[in-house]
Design brief:
Strand content of chain B: under 5%
Largest sheet of chain B: none
Structural class of chain A: mainly alpha
Helix content of chain B: over 70%
Number of strands of chain B: 0
Number of helices of chain A: 5
Order of helices and strands of chain A: HHHHH
Strand content of chain A: under 5%
Oligomer: heterodimer
Shape of chain B: elongated
Number of helices of chain B: 4
Distance between the termini of chain A: 56 Å
Shape of chain A: extended
Helix content of chain A: over 70%
Structural class of chain B: mainly alpha
Order of helices and strands of chain B: HHHH
Largest sheet of chain A: none
Number of strands of chain A: 0
Radius of gyration of chain B: 17 Å
Distance between the termini of chain B: 50 Å
């Protein structure tokens, strides 16, 4: 099973590179959707049903939102021919070096993680659901407020 | 398992490449999405490796995914507003035109 998830992770990397390097933005979004699909399948393979369903919800919102954004604006990446400057290369190399050092420090610590975490203290059953609903409503209200502002710009 | 961690790191680097090198706002958002995916995948693989502690890592992975969704939704809306104001997704052009 680990081999299957590693293959899926490799496919996510390929889809991500295609999404970043293609000229047509619609193709980029479709590649991102493919990466999301591979991620959801890998989540189910890992036995993480909640994360898989969360991934489906996340990409079901994100992909139509990106397609809607492209419909309102442009669908072609005109900056694709711009070459990265020396500053970009320096930042990229620094970030990669940081990640490599971070992983080298992290790997020995991963083996020391406890296998059994302490049991979480649960409140009343309905309270956590209410809290989740409140967070989702607050997020939806925020997005609606910004979208409303965008729509009224011409007035 | 080490291969999975290394692949997660490569995916994260691909995301950083998108954020640092690309000049198009949509590509930058896609890069951040790839970084979020790599972190969530790393948490899932850690949970799988730890076996009994999987629930904790699943929860953190779920929070990562949904938190990333919220951030990216707001970034997309902000990108649309920037496009309406400046007429381009090119961040170097937006930087030049600001003020």
């Amino acid at each position: 099973m680990l081999v299957a998830t590693e293959v899926l992770l490799g496919l996510i990397i390929v889809a991500g590179l295609v999404a970043l390097e293609t000229r047509r933005l619609r193709t980029s979004v479709i590649s991102l959707a493919a990466a999301g699909l591979f991620f959801v399948v890998a989540s189910f393979l890992f036995g993480s049903v909640e994360v898989g369903i969360g991934g489906i919800v996340a990409f079901a919102v994100l992909i139509p939102l990106l397609l809607w954004a492209l419909k309102r604006t442009i669908s072609e990446d005109v900056t694709i021919r711009v070459r990265p400057g020396p500053n970009d290369i320096f930042v990229l190399i620094s970030a990669v070096a940081f990640i490599v050092v971070f992983l080298l420090v992290l790997f020995p610590l991963l083996g020391e993680l406890p296998s059994l975490p302490p049991e979480p203290v649960e409140g009343p059953v309905g309270l956590s659901i209410l809290r989740e609903i409140f967070v989702l409503v607050a997020a939806a209200a925020g997005v609606w407020a910004v979208v409303r502002k965008v729509g009224r710009r011409g007035e | 398992m080490t291969t999975t961690y290394v692949l997660c790191a490569i995916l994260f680097i691909v995301g950083i490449y998108g954020v640092v090198v690309k000049k198009n706002l949509i590509k930058i958002i896609i890069g951040i999405s790839l970084m979020v995916q790599s972190v969530a995948f790393l948490l899932l693989s850690l949970g799988y490796a730890k076996g009994a502690g999987q629930g904790l890592f699943q929860t953190i992975g779920l929070v990562t995914m949904l938190g990333g969704l919220g951030v990216m939704s707001l970034m997309i809306i902000t990108a649309i507003r920037l496009y309406e104001k400046y007429g381009t997704f090119d961040i170097s052009e937006i930087r030049r035109l600001k003020g």
